[in-house]
Design goal:
By secondary structure, the chain is an all-alpha fold. It contains ten helices and two strands. It is globular and about 50 Å long.
Length: about 190
């Protein structure tokens, strides 16, 4: 992890944040499990800092069966209670129940469309949108695309999918390249 590399402002100096920025954030993903994981984690982050969620990520992976959508969709109220007692995750009942609801909605979306991954990617025209931000102040919190994704996901029965969460999800999964132009990752992606 070289210190002489120019990174996006938010990466800071925390090694976990820097590694996430350098290896994962903005890398295009078409893996259904990973997309569901990131949608879940972005929703869990609502009202908290992203570093809090990154520090709990391994716990989330263990608690939610590796983000296996089919398994999560079968969670019972008893399983939700077990998750509520897990100090390794954010113990917010609405967020935990929302994850179960979203897993069921994800499976229904998959059944309805035949490809939930492509359905999600449709909001950026099926390929990564490369933005050209020069500074932190230029990067928006929402866009027309994230507004559309949010509305569509809510129509499909998802929760914790407001436009800001959707845009963060799009950034994290490489649907948009929002590394600032001076960041070493900008050109690589």
């Amino acid at each position: 992890m070289a210190k002489d590399k120019v990174r996006c402002w938010w990466a800071g100096s925390d090694p976990l944040y820097v590694a996430y920025h350098d290896r994962e954030w903005g890398v295009p993903s078409r893996d259904a499990r990973h997309l569901f994981e990131m949608l879940t984690l972005e929703g869990a982050q609502a009202g908290l800092s992203w570093i809090t969620i990154l520090r709990k990520r391994d716990n989330y992976i263990a608690a939610f069966d590796g983000f296996d959508v089919e398994r999560i969709a079968r969670y019972t109220p008893a399983r939700v209670e077990t998750l509520m007692a897990n100090p390794g995750i954010v113990r917010n009942r609405l967020k935990i129940e929302g994850t179960v609801r979203n897993a069921r909605a994800f499976l229904a979306l998959q059944e309805e469309t035949g490809d939930a991954v492509e359905w999600l990617w449709q909001f950026v025209g099926g390929r990564p949108k490369k933005n050209r931000w020069k500074a932190q102040r230029d990067v928006p919190a929402t866009t027309a695309e994230s507004d559309a994704m949010s509305r569509a996901l809510k129509t499909q029965g998802f929760t914790f999918v407001g436009s800001t969460i959707c845009y963060s999800f799009m950034q994290a999964t490489g649907m948009v390249n929002d590394h600032i132009q001076t960041c070493f990752r900008y050109r690589r992606l």
